[in-house]
Fold each of these.
Amino acid sequence: MKNLKRVLVLLLTVILFNVSCSSDDTPTTDFCENYIENIEEGLQDYSSAVMAQYNNPSDANCAALKTEIQSMITTIESGKECFSDSETESYNELIAELKEHLITACD
């Protein structure tokens, strides 16, 4: 149950995370728009993997969950430029939480 609460807090953090990009039409802006879509898709996959492991703990579901956690880490890290300076601390905390969850995902 402890891990579920942590996952829910993490999911809320990701959902409420304010990803901001510049307002001009530079390639970075296009990248950031796609990045936000990638995070939303990754969040759905991650959520599904969490629920699968929670409802039916198994080695296969655990492996799938760890894969989705790593995918979220990779996706979020790839878009660091989309976060404003004021969001850097939240960004770093989110990455740290995901890495910790990767280690304890199936406990």
Amino acid sequence: MAASSSRSPFMNWARRSLIGNIVLLELTLGPATFVVFCAKAYSDGDLSRGDLVFFAVLSAIGGLATGALFWFGLSRPLLARRKGPRGQ
């Protein structure tokens, strides 16, 4: 049995494509960032509807940017190294 067969199809897709990296980090980083921002604003006593929209947009953009940076900075180089030198 291959090592990658124990992973879910979603995780296999997420680690091998740019869109997969973005979706994975949007689903993991985005909600966590949103909750932290909302909790901070609520504890300071100045949470408004406009802040909620702003935090949602900021979390979405942050997840998108982090997914792209993660792909170009870590995932793609590791996949290229795993395949070996060109021509083999």
